[in-house]
């Protein structure tokens, strides 16, 4: 005991007695603030759903945004929307974190060269910019991809000032696809691909489940196609490419080739098609070029010829098939060759007009072409007034930073100060898409609407209104063609445009539904285009370097971050990469042979340098990237944007844009910088090998198709009938009302992790940050752990693992304070206010799905506005876990009781089930004999329980993944 | 009783004394009277809650005028919350009746300025408790069982401390659910 002085003693006792005597009041809301006039259709304390459109990527999925008491808390897929049909990817989920981003810009800023930035008012901004406009500055507009009203306004604005320089800059502009269709059919478009009808999908490095065109649509189509419905036919997917991506791991067959060799595979397939006479359209005019390429390359050394013959036959003879070309960010000649040969494959097999619809170009067709961009950037000079809206060329385009600096005045309209905004003179904060009116047409006929889902958080304006106001002040007011309404604001413009396209009386209904897409359902009767025979020539094979430190670059787009615009979102940074389960950062994939030659081992800091630039990142040594290639994900390595993005990972765009030397992305030098990188790789799944534990089970299709419903493994059900007196230690549990249960179809799961991000959003799960994740303190209630198939390299499957809500739950009897309780409806409840944090439950849980709050997480304002008011925010020292979204169960139960009816099967959708693009989850009541969940649990021959031998009687039943071993 | 006796004796002794002892005596009597009233809780039989920005009396509205609780707390039967009425609801009547009473004038002023009245919260449950009004109303649980005799309250006061014992006691008596997940989630 240390000596304590009289003074200290009095200080301590005095202080504590004052603290006790004054009894500081609880920090709680003690004010009730009602409306003055109630809002229409808004009831305090109840949920309202607003239909709007996701603008996080060009796919344009429909969203329902949950609104409560003036704030929005959850975004989920609109089940009626034709693009996503209810699913929503992690990026769409995280749109709320974009809205509530603590680093969002709130004020107008002006920055003169060499001076500190200063705050200005909107009035000053408008006055200064319109003065420059009136003085005769040349207008140039660069924007993210827009269609509909904003595109009209942007074009109209430029035209009013005698300019046609309006470009939609997207880092992923699908240039090769457009170039290929331009060359063959005279249409520079990104077509609509109908994957839902296909028996065979051949992807040439197109990661269509992750970020290629419209991933949610494709995920649903793929999952629907490979769902087992009896019989022996399942749609097949084959992936040809240099790196095992999430899409590749989902393929029935993954054919690894070096980067750029996808086109040789496609050419070989075309040659087989021609030789065998399987072509349905005349492509014989392309034979010389194809044969020249095949002859130069010789037989593809990595793939047996038989495999290709088999694949080509299947491609040509199946009912419907499609070939897709990638990779996403490549614009080199090799990528165009791939796209061209793939388009020829589709054409030759008669797929153009069947599964490839050129008459319905995707909105991405309007994104700027490479040649246009080069001209645009090169022509910028002192007289230019450059308006940039919501796009970031300074980060993603080689040389753009220097070229932007040449413009006389740069006005940036956006929500975040990203790398491009840092170069701008004026920064005008705009509404987040969730706060604004707007429209977007991902495909012709799909008129998708955006509406404000909450009132503005800050003093921001709609981008359309800013352009209209500037035009008005300069004396050249804009009006929509045919309306003559020059005083219009942007919201009226949107409405007028919609009315002129769809009709006047449908507005209200369309707003409630999220848009109008009746005309998209009408099949188009345009004739199938005929390819224009042309002399094709393909680039020669790239010289493959023999140097050990040289490698060909492969860039891939991360499913979470897309092109990097979303990198400041905690949910996405903390969402693990589907295949590696790394989070918070990126890494360099290196083939073991090359790594051995350079003395690099896993986790070493490695530098890649190309003609354009260099980057440093930790190495991951894996044979999942082809030999002689290195792969890096795009989207990380920001030097602006916000606190989560800045300084995390390395910017892969820095390596692109220089000369590609005839290879796909160019080649680069590898250099080991240090052993052990300061940015260590943090995985949250420590092993992707099952070590013969058979947690994730497969079943061959040949065996499965012989089984009848009800056959297969008998399960010990989490019902009274599952009680066996000789085996069970604890008494039988009876249920009177419901027994909630879930079925997870592993065959449908593509591993995207949308469910996990949805769970974060719904259940107030904190983002703990890089360091704490490294300490093993991540909080995800639901993880979609990848497991490699041991007997088949290049194949993986995912196991969505959440609390199993066991009937004989091992966590319950060990809790000394009864915080882990079994509830009357079979849920395994964790009562936070009882929990004292012994963590016995977590130690005893065989599935390791419980999470402990090691620290109090402070929700950075205004991120706290996103918190779900129906779920407790947990504090330090409390155990938490999946609740099957009990708040949604209660919502539905109470609603049913108020309406005096029973709960319908499928009425309750936990957040994970709602957001899943592939419809993996089925939730329902096991006591209802007709519920889908009951039928699947009792009858599906693929059913199994996880670690059933422990007799935990889980309420989650898994359906085995199917190995498609039946040759078509 | 003692002070009064003393005062009487003094009066006998001096026919014309100063007035202040009489006044003091009266004051004491008055104080005693008030003390008795307060002691037996006679002026505010249902208690007195915190001061509100507008002294709205539930007693006058719900008891004297016999207005139903649901007239203003419209959400109670269909939502988890009972709902605090918007200002517009007050003006449904007070646009026509008792327009000039100072506090109602203040209310109308608020309405004209589109300014909400910020009420002091009286009844609350901790943030980890999820109570649903509509389910209780549907089962025929009267408002007064939890909120006390609001019809006799001028300034609404907490009638019961909403601790878990209070909830569980009632659930036990009515053989209602004991599922933890009913209120905690």
Automatic annotation (TrEMBL), chain A:
GO molecular function terms listed in the Swiss-Prot or TrEMBL record: 4 iron, 4 sulfur cluster binding; metal ion binding; molybdopterin cofactor binding; oxidoreductase activity
Cofactor: [4Fe-4S] cluster
SUPFAM superfamilies named among the record's database cross-references: 4Fe-4S ferredoxins, ADC-like, Formate dehydrogenase/DMSO reductase, domains 1-3
Annotated compartments: Cell envelope
Superkingdom to which the source organism belongs: Bacteria
Signal peptide annotation: none
Gene Ontology cellular component annotations, sorted alphabetically: cell envelope
Location of the 4Fe-4S Mo/W bis-MGD-type domain: 47-103
Domain 4Fe-4S ferredoxin-type: 740-770
CDD domains: PsrB
UniProt keyword terms in alphabetical order: 4Fe-4S, Iron, Iron-sulfur, Metal-binding, Oxidoreductase
Keyword 4Fe-4S in annotation: yes
Pfam families per the UniProt record, alphabetical: Fer4_11, Fer4_2, Molybdop_Fe4S4, Molybdopterin, Molydop_binding
Stated family: Belongs to the prokaryotic molybdopterin-containing oxidoreductase family.
Name of the molecule in the record: Fe-S-cluster-containing hydrogenase
Organism: Geomonas silvestris
Phylogenetic classification of the source organism: Bacteria, Pseudomonadati, Thermodesulfobacteriota, Desulfuromonadia, Geobacterales
From TrEMBL, chain B:
Keyword Membrane included in the entry's annotation: yes
Residue ranges crossing the lipid bilayer per the database entry: 20-42
Keyword annotations: Membrane, Transmembrane, Transmembrane helix
Keyword Transmembrane: yes
Domain of life: Bacteria
Record CDD domains: Cytochrom_C3 (cd08168)
Gene3D superfamilies registered for this protein in UniProt: Cytochrome C3 (3.90.10.10)
Protein name (record): Class III cytochrome C domain protein
Organism listed in the record: Geomonas silvestris
Source taxonomy: Bacteria, Pseudomonadati, Thermodesulfobacteriota, Desulfuromonadia, Geobacterales
